Amino acid sequence: MGETFGLLMHGFSIALTPLNLLWGFIGTMLGTFIGVLPGVGPALTVAMLMPLTVKLDPTGALIMFAGIYYGAMYGGSTTTILLNTPGESASIATALEGNMMAKNGRAGPALATCAIGSFVAGTIATILVTLLAPLVVEVALKFGPAEYFALMVFAFTTVAAVIGSSTVRGLTSLFLGLLLGVVGIDSQTGKSRFAFGVPELLDGIDVVVLAVGLFAVGEALYVAAYASRLEEKMEQIKGSLWMSKEDWKRSWPAWLRATAIGFPFGSIPAGGAEIPTFLSYAVEKRLTKYPEEFGHGAIEGVAGPEAANNASVTGALVPLLTLGIPTSATAAVLLSAFQNYGISPGPLLFQMQPDLVWGLLASLYIGNVMLLILNLPLVGMWVKVLSIPQPLLYAGILVFATLGAYSLHQSVVDLITLYVFGLLGFAMRRWDIPVAPAVIGLILGPLAETQARRALAISQGDATVFLTHPISASILALSFLLLVLPLLYRLLRRS
Amino acid sequence: MKAKPAELTLSLGILALGIATAIGTAQLPRAGGYARIGPNVAPAVIAGGLILLGIWLLYETLSGGWRNAVADDPAARGEHRFTPSGFIWVSLGVIAQILLIDRGGFVLAQAVLFTAVARGFGSEKLPRDFAIGVILSLSIFLFFVKFLNVNLPAGWLKPLLGGAGI
């Protein structure tokens, strides 16, 4: 505990250098700016802004990413409330009440409860990450490859099969990602797999290309085809931005409850901020003294889900940093940013590069404060961003998206794969196949393969190693149950 | 109820992808190097998974359609009818950019992309869009090349734009 505090203070001494503060500031501003754009979620924001950090040292770059990550989320909630176009599934619950509040002329308090709620939830969650991460690292240091492999299988199961509207479509997305993950030179044997003689494919497919293809190109194709000729109605911000005493009284408990709901969902490798946001919405709806307001703009219904989203997204940093396991598309893109710097998150990172880890954690606190100070006063500016006409907006998004993909290797092959992934993204969006499992499968698949091989190398080829290690066996059993139980339940209910 | 053509196509597509992966896997070397599992094990698992998922999807298609599917009627999704021109213009923009970027250069390729995408979203002010596209991509180009020192192709505009570095 005391040791953690000392390390965190050391982290602050790194994050508070003027240059790193500047990177944090730029990241927060850019993240909010891009995150405000309708249809752009945090995963795409991080992926698009990645080329900007190429010249930074790893610590500065990661601090900037932390700012982008938080800024993108905050920016998204502004769009959700004023335009009723949730940029990601985790914002849907916020949209329900937030947009109604804006329609009733209470956009100001809705935005304020989001901003302050995000700050409260984000800060508490960051404290929990700080306290929890060293403990998880202690445990994780005892894990062998078999346990890691089991954990990754668990992450695959929850991300693909448990979340979303259909198990089979989630799994299909995951396996598409896994297939893309084996393209290129096999790291262990040096043999090329499915590269079809294209030299650019030997290096494998970059997560950024997949994420940008699915989220930006696919989204643009879809919106152009199905939603470009709609009248969009943006709510204006009328009256005061400030929350009344009553608003405060109703928001506080919702923020705290939502943090308690959101954090655990993010921090176990069970991925997705979607479930906790809806859970928080349901809890607030049940506990409120004003049930008649729900559906017409109840402030608890904005405060809760938004705080839950933030807490769970912050919680997702625990498995990402301590185990190297991403549990959301955004975390997958962040992991790829780490890898571009030759950093592999995991328990060893805490021992080998404490400056980087603790500087990053400290910058999360700073990022939260920056967002709170910057965003409410600047809300007028973000609203201007929102009023950019849709044709110019998407044209600009594609210019940045293709830049992000091209600047990775200066290669046209990346642009061609980008377009192919765009077509895939269009189809996935149209027929409701979730895209996050594919992104996670692409980056986590090769890691799982490596761990499986290590485990088998240690056990001298004995495949029962995954079932004889108690931890690995129980995690695998749990994954299996999560996958099979819902299906069994459905079968039983039908007969 | 008849199977929906789109669901049928996608299900068969996944099945075909699984079979193609299996065929490709068969040509990969078995064990090799220090690793006890060769480069073909993971692809084999993935091929098997895709084939099973393809069959599962096909079963859903033929037994009343995909479960929990989104509405086929765009109006029910709060959207308008499929607008081919939107899809085609965005595609043309990306393809033109792919063809242009190495020879014509970043600025030109991105400006063309910008104009075509804006067209796909219903903008009719082509000259204005192109001008905005040029300004935007020129700013990005100068920022990356002169400030970040990241090289982007100057292409046909090289005599005007010069090389990297301030």
In short:
The complex is a heterodimer of chains A (495) and B (166). Chain A is an all-alpha fold and 495 residues long. Helix content of chain A is 74%, strand content 1%.
Task: Supply the key terms.
heterodimer, A: 495 residues, mainly alpha, 22 helices, 74% helix, B: 166 residues, 2 domains, 6 helices
Please describe what this structure looks like:
The complex is a heterodimer of chains A (495) and B (166). Chain A is mainly α and 495 residues long. Chain A has one domain (2-229, 241-494). Helix content of chain A is 74%, strand content 1%. Chain A has 22 helices and two strands. Chain A has a two-stranded antiparallel sheet with strand order 1-2. Chain A starts with a helix and ends with a helix. By secondary structure, chain B is mainly α. Chain B folds into two domains: 5-77; 84-161, no CATH class. Chain B has helices spanning 5-26, 41-62, 84-100, 106-120, 126-147, 158-161. Chain B is flat. At the A-B interface, α8, α9, α18, α19 and α20 of A face α1, α2, α3, α4 and α5 of B.
Query: Over the alpha carbons, how many angstroms does the gyration radius of chain B reach?
Result: 24 Å
How big a fraction of the residues of chain A is strand? Answer: under 5%
Gross morphology of chain B is: flat
Give the CA-based shape of chain A.
globular
Multimeric organization: heterodimer
Strand content of chain B: under 5%
Low-confidence stretches of chain B: none
Give a quick account of the main beta sheet of chain A: strands, pairing sense, barrel closure.
2 strands, antiparallel
Please name the two chains that share the biggest interface, counting residues whose Cβ lies under 8 Å from a Cβ on the partner chain: A-B, 67 and 75 residues
Helix tally of chain B equals 6
